[in-house]
Amino acid sequence: MQHIDESGGYGKNTVKKGSVYIRTIGCQMNTRDSEVVKGLLSVEGYEMTDDPKKADVVLFNTCSVRDHAEQRVWSGIGLLSRKKNRPLIGILGCMAQNFKQEIFQRARAVDLVCGPAEIDNIALYLEEALKKQDKVLAVDERRRREEIYHTGFYDKRNHAYIVVSEGCDNYCSYCVVPYVRGRLRHRPAEEIVREAQAAVDAGITSITLLGQNVSAYLTEDRVCGFPALLEKVAKVKGLKSLSFITSHPKDTKKELFEAMRDIPVVRKYLHMPAQSGSDRVLAMMNRGYTAKIYRELVDLYRSIVYNGELSSDFIVGFPTESEEDFRATHELVKGVRFDSAFIFKYSARPHTKAAELPDDVPQGTKKRRHAELLELQKSISQSLKHAKTA
Ligand code: 5AD
Ligand code: SF4
User: Fold this and answer.
1) Domain count for the chain
2) Which of 90, 159, 194, 263 is deepest in the core (most CB within 10 A)?
3) How remote is the CA of residue 118 from the centroid of ligand 2, in Å?
4) Cβ(288)–Cβ(307) under 8 Å?
5) Could you tell me the pLDDT band of residue 388, with boundaries at 50, 70 and 90?
6) Residue identifier of the C-alpha nearest atom 5 of ligand 1
7) Which of 66, 284, 352 is the best mutation target for the ligand 1 pocket, counting ligand atoms within 8 Å of the beta carbon and taking the most?
8) From ligand 2's centre to the CA of 168, what distance in Å?
9) How does pLDDT run across 213-266, given as a tens digit for each residue?
10) Is residue 151 in a domain?
11) Are 11 and 103 contained in the same domain?
12) Residue 291's domain spans which residues?
């Protein structure tokens, strides 16, 4: 683990603290949030452990994007709560925001619930929970303080995840993110560059910029968009590799592809989720493009970024998805030939528009479509890999 001391004022409290284990579920954004929490707790005197059996405190940094991710957390809590000398248990992240108070009813062993917008005060809440031996709930929806990104904690010695934006305003009809992570906020470009510089000065050579939709990045004065941000970060001396995820097709433009082509340290890898190949389903998903527009964007990308990699996400079994809709998705995957794709079975998420529709694609059909698409993608990924190494 890498700790660059940029804390500037954190760590004043010296009460004796125990050891903390953090289990991260979900996306890279959560991986980064866990690093931030580790940073904030370490400067307050907590010890981090990789062994949950030895921990006095176990924090689950959770994900609500799919039902499956939530089920894993409930069963993890269940296992821990049956232990004789169980640790203090905390739920952080999206499930905290999604369930709030209800978590204490569903899982009595949980002592602390802290939403994504509240993690900058995690040390305070944890101390309260340890002292009071009482439940602590922190699920306000505030803007995080900028300083929390400068505690300088990264899990890896040579790689840093750096957040460029938080939340999402797209309201794709199946997605819980806008409800648990809040409205879209962009960090100032100079803060992102400052964090990148500090990381590289400490020996990190590879950076991944993170956001639910980095392509929509724009500073408050509307001067710096994402391609310009890439240029600024790429100027950090000593940086060898710069990646970014995720790019929504509706905000991804020629200028980004040109930046990928022209800036040597930028990795030629684009994660641009299509979600479906059916125009009817895409409209129901509120994605803002058709399969044709998506294909044209891919063609543009490939014409500008020579040998660029491309990956995608797909959801099968969205409400009302017919066999014909699924065939359209199958055709898109077959035609585009992604280097890789993540394929998910639809699960209804609370608060979302799609959850108002009947989840009417039978589980067996979802399973079959999932397996079929996975099989197709596997063979494409293998043949592309083979072609590249041949
Ligand atoms: N059901 C299934 N998959 C989902 N995703 C988001 N919401 C859902 C849902 N309700 C998938 C999308 C997204 C990825 C992170 O998770 O494909 O791109
Ligand atoms: Fe969810 Fe859509 Fe935002 Fe991605 S772009 S986080 S799928 S609402």
Assistant:
1) 3
2) 90
3) 21
4) no
5) confident
6) 65
7) 66
8) 6
9) 999 999 999 999 999 999 999 999 999 999 999 999 999 999 999 999 999 999
10) no
11) yes
12) 268-390
